[in-house]
Amino acid sequence: MLSTNLYNNIDLSRKREQQIDTLKVFNENVTEISFNKEYSVEFPTKVGNLSLVIDLGPKFPIEKPTMKICPRIIHKWVDATGQIVLAPGLMNYTIHSDLGRVVQVIRREFELDQSLILASGGSNSFSGKTAKGCIKNTNTSLTNDVEFFSLAKLTSTELLHLNNNVDCLDEFISELPSIEASNKNIENTITKIMDLANSNMSKEEPICNLRSEISKQLETIETYQKSYAGLSAKYVKLSEKYSPQSISDNLKKAAIKCDEESERIAEQFLNGDIDCDKFLQVYVKSRTMSYTRKAKEDRLNYQLKQLKEAGF
């Protein structure tokens, strides 16, 4: 603990007021039990409304405050007397801490804890004003709770009758507003689920028809794919066959073939196998075709060379 002498030159009264202001800024339902000394913060939890009582000692804010919860609960931060002892913010509290934020963290811990339960038979070491404040908050919570208010209207005889008769107890519980509201919500949810199920069932036939249609379209697509593959292969062969270089090669081969044919005809003429008229007719035709093809080959090669030089 830091020495008080270290802060002789600090206005502790002003810092005390600032800490109390942060308590009111960061928390709702702050009640002043004792001016500048004791305050309570009421908040809702799983087990009902609780009050966190903050006791600011005479050396606060140099010394950390004391905090107790009312009614007493079972929680890892709370000891057997209801005092908050293991909250990290409170354990590490210094003069530079914010009281409001520390209380806010503790309050949020209790509000969100779904495993929270009230302690039974425990003793609460509170001052008279604190005890009265806790009792007042508890009564207010019970009065605002419709279920407890319904029980409060019953006589002792009626309560005993409910306790001993399971059927009457079930009937009483079923007529409680919260139970009726829950049953109504359940019925509405069931209705919505049934409507959704019927809607889904009505879509089954259209979905089956669409699935069948998609299957047919997939078969058509597969047929087109096979046809496309065959046509693509045919196109590749034709493109290779009719490419300019292929045409040039074919012209060259055809011209050579015509030359060979004309040479064969000339040999037949020299050997006396064919007469002069037939020789002239066939030989001239063969040589003419050969020169024509050579001329076309030369022209095509010239054009290809020009395109190549032009960058095509």
From TrEMBL:
It is found in: Late endosome membrane. It is a peripheral membrane protein. GO terms for biological process: protein targeting to membrane; protein targeting to vacuole; ubiquitin-dependent protein catabolic process via the multivesicular body sorting pathway. One of its GO terms (cellular component) is ESCRT I complex. It comes from the Eukaryota. InterPro entries: ESCRT_assembly_dom, Helix_hairpin_bin_sf, Mod_r, UBQ-conjugating_enzyme/RWD. SUPFAM superfamilies: Endosomal sorting complex assembly domain, UBC-like. Keywords: Endosome, Protein transport, Transport. Signal peptide: none annotated. Residues 225-312 form the VPS37 C-terminal domain. Pfam families: Mod_r. Its main location: membrane. Component of the ESCRT-I complex, a regulator of vesicular trafficking process. Required for the sorting of endocytic ubiquitinated cargos into multivesicular bodies. May be involved in cell growth and differentiation. Belongs to the VPS37 family. This is Vacuolar protein sorting-associated protein 37A. The lineage of its organism: Eukaryota, Metazoa, Ecdysozoa, Arthropoda, Hexapoda.
